[in-house]
User: Which sequence fits this backbone?
């Protein structure tokens, strides 16, 4: 029980930190762009499956997340340097932006 409370406390502390002072310039200036596409543009070419989708904020590509087998959004960053993605989740309250370059997450609630 004590461990559990401590865990929640540290989690909360970390979230507040990344939400505010440690945002990178990319995320501070971000105006999130959505995608009307509900599939990974790379996975469909090879008939693969994905878990969640990310939308590249530089070129609008819709690609799969790191929980997916192919990690196309991460590969896209490595190949193009496009570092900011926004989640494309069905629930609006769970949306977030992620910067690959600076490894910073911002909630978009
Ligand atoms: Zn950044
Ligand atoms: Zn994919
Ligand atoms: Zn891109």
Assistant:
């Amino acid at each position: 029980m004590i461990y559990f409370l401590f865990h929640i406390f540290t989690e909360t502390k970390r979230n507040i930190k990344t939400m505010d002072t440690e945002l990178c310039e990319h995320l501070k200036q971000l105006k999130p762009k959505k995608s009307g596409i509900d599939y990974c543009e790379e996975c469909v070419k090879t008939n693969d499956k994905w878990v969640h989708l990310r939308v590249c904020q530089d070129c609008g590509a819709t690609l799969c997340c790191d929980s997916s087998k192919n990690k196309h959004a991460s590969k896209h960053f490595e190949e193009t340097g496009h570092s900011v993605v926004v989640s494309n989740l069905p629930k609006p309250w769970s949306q977030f932006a992620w910067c690959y370059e600076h490894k910073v997450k911002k909630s978009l609630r």
